[in-house]
Design a protein that fits this description.
It is a single chain. With 106 residues, this protein is mainly α. It is rod-shaped and about 115 Å long. The chain has three helices and no strands.
Length: 106
């Protein structure tokens, strides 16, 4: 009986140590700040960077359009085209080509 008790007491610290190591390994991979969470954050970051790039490209397009409408740099053709499109008007000398509503030109 004494030998079993002594062996059991000798086995408890290594078992506790192994359980502690197993907990930290699990936490390092599965926890809130583990490897899987880091991979998810990196994927979210890539998605956000792609959205930022699209937004910056759209902003650049609008900035060019607005810059072309300033009085010092006004592009008369662009202004004329935009005014006719918004007012749904045409010049008597214009040639108008009709196309179906569901078909886009560009």
């Amino acid at each position: 009986m004494v030998g079993v008790k002594r062996r059991l007491q000798a086995a408890v610290p290594p078992c506790v140590f192994l359980l502690l190591v197993a907990y930290f390994l699990w936490s390092a991979t599965q926890g809130d700040r583990g490897l899987r969470a880091m991979a998810q954050r990196e994927e979210d970051l890539r998605g956000a960077q792609a959205m930022l790039a699209r937004a910056e490209a759209e902003t650049a397009v609008w900035e060019r359009r607005v810059a072309s409408l300033r009085s010092a740099h006004i592009d008369r053709d662009a202004l004329d085209e935009r005014a006719r499109a918004m007012l749904n008007l045409s010049h008597p000398d214009d040639v108008i080509v009709l196309y179906p509503n569901n078909q886009k030109l560009f």
